[in-house]
Amino acid sequence: MKKVLSLVLAAGLLLAASLANADTKRLTLATGGTSGVYFPLGGAIAQVITNKSGGAISVTAQATGASGENMRLVQAGDVDFAMVQNDVADSAFNGLAPFRSKLDNVRVIGRLYPEYLHVVASKDSGVKALEDFKGKKVSVGARGSGNEVNCRQIFGFYGLDYKNIEPIFLPYGETADQFKDRQVDGFVFTIGTPNPAIQDITTAQEVVFVPLAGQKVDEIVKKFPYLVKDSIPAGTYLGQKEAVPTLSVQCILVANKNMPDDVAYTLTKTLYDNLPDVAKAHNKGAEISLEHAADGVTIPFHPGAVKYFKEKGLDIK
Description:
TRAP transporter solute receptor, TAXI family; TRAP_TAXI; D-Maltodextrin-Binding Protein, domain 2; 317 residues; 38% helix; alpha/beta; receptor
């Protein structure tokens, strides 16, 4: 009799576990290339949401070509949510170049952290200013990525375009490999600090961190208000003794508008209520805060996220 009761109890527990698993919402988070910040930070976010949502949500992080591709994936419903640059999100949502149509199925969950434009050249290239890239091989990032969008935005102010430089369309890891092999003269990365690919480069050879400052930067910010005057702190990379003036954008988290409100609410709440755990898993998590959750956001928030932020006393619409 006891054996029968034990079997019945075990069967009941298995059934309960099965039903609990059936209720778990399984989501895919689009991140970026494996050599950037998006992929490892996205993995940390996925792990925290999965572990801290009480079985409500299970998240899988997916490597992608980053912001441009991620907006298209979310728009089409091929992924549930994604990490993107705020400027790319705005251009995509409003159907501005390089996007051919409005990607307006996208809604914001919240801002994550700032990303800096790193303009880097080899020491022997002779490049000291952005204008010096004329006639050089320059990696501008994966085609259609937020990184490439930023290159298109700023190059024109310095008399550069894809006709007077040789653009190379590569993700961060491949760019680092070609840079070390002297196959490219320089690159532009829009990325959080410190970037592992750049750290790898600076341990292997001397580089020049090209500053972005002065009147031209003022003109850029006036035309593209999503770009902010900023600086890469001194000592971020080996051999970088001084702060480097540059521009920054914001990494934000977006979801498809058809994500159920309760799912978006739970996702947002679980993330922002457990930021210390994200910070333990990845150093960029320390730069995510509830206080700055709306910084740089110019497209609509998801109603589920709005509900959570209002509970926290934030006036987000």
